[in-house]
């Protein structure tokens, strides 16, 4: 396999990827905010625009009116409170210093202001089952061809696992529509099971599909091992 991204090259060379978590203060955000967050960061820090190693997770919240989510409110004034919402990145560890300037910054996310606190870095932990809230693969918008495309990408990464498209409570595929630069992109939630530790860390490190800087294709461990135990917040 030829390494084709910064995160993949880091994994191949033994440099780990990490989770970076910035506590944040704010009241609410658009529910579909992946592109908006990336745009705000790119405006504030042009050096982070178009880098291929940056993964930005969707910010979790609670439904709060049409098209909005409310952010958890910290019980303490400190931005380090564990009760506050969090802004999370998935990056190679050797790029940690490149995202430190985000600490303490205010960002305008589609007209909603948030402020980031001091980051905490945590190593990735292997798990036999992983879940990505949104995966997008160009030109694949229907469930069966999309799942086949996911499996091809897993093969190209030499990741052995059982991929599935989870269903919601009504038994429907979790089809996701995200807006990117004024265009609507179709994706799906994806779960991958039966992973060994190495493949689990590899998949968490560089994911499946594109648009990782806009919240897509980032996998996290599932509590339990089947998609019936998966729930989305925000």
Structure in words:
The protein is α+β, with helices and mostly antiparallel strands. The chain folds into 2 domains: 7-123, Alpha-Beta Plaits (2-Layer Sandwich); 130-229, Alpha-Beta Plaits (2-Layer Sandwich). It is built from 5 helices and 14 strands. The protein has helices spanning 6-13, 34-44, 96-99, 143-156, 197-206, and strands at 17-25, 28-30, 55-56, 62-63, 68-70, 85-92, 106-109, 112-116, 120-123, 130-135, 162-164, 175-180, 183-193, 219-221. The longest helix has 14 residues, at 143-156. It is globular, with a radius of gyration of 17 Å. The protein starts with 5 loop residues before the first helix and ends in a 13-residue tail after the last strand.
Sheet/helix structural class: alpha+beta
Biggest β-sheet: count, sense, barrel? 6 strands, antiparallel
Measured on Cα atoms, how large is the radius of gyration?
Answer: 17 Å
What is the tally of helical segments?
5
């Amino acid at each position: 396999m030829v390494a084709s991204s910064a995160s993949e090259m880091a994994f191949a060379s033994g440099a780990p990827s990490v989770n970076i978590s910035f506590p944040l203060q704010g009241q609410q955000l658009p529910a579909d905010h992946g592109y908006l967050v990336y745009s705000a960061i790119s405006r504030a820090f042009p050096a982070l625009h178009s880098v291929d190693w940056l993964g930005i997770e969707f910010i979790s919240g609670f439904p709060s009116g049409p098209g909005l989510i409310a952010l958890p409110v910290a019980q303490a004034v400190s931005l380090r409170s564990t009760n506050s919402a969090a802004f999370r990145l998935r990056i190679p560890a050797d790029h940690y210093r490149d995202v430190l300037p985000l600490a303490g910054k205010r960002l305008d996310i589609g007209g909603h202001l948030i402020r980031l606190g001091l980051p905490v870095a945590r190593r990735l932990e292997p798990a036999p089952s992983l879940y990505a809230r949104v995966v997008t693969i160009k030109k694949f918008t229907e469930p069966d061809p999309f799942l086949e495309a996911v499996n091809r990408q897993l093969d190209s990464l030499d990741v052995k696992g059982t991929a599935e498209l989870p269903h919601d409570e009504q038994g429907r595929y979790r089809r996701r529509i995200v807006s990117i630069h004024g265009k609507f992109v179709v994706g799906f939630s994806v779960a991958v099971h039966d992973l060994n530790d190495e493949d689990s860390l590899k998949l968490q490190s560089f994911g499946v599909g594109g648009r990782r800087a806009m919240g897509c294709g980032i996998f996290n461990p599932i509590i339990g091992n089947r998609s019936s135990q998966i729930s989305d917040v925000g």
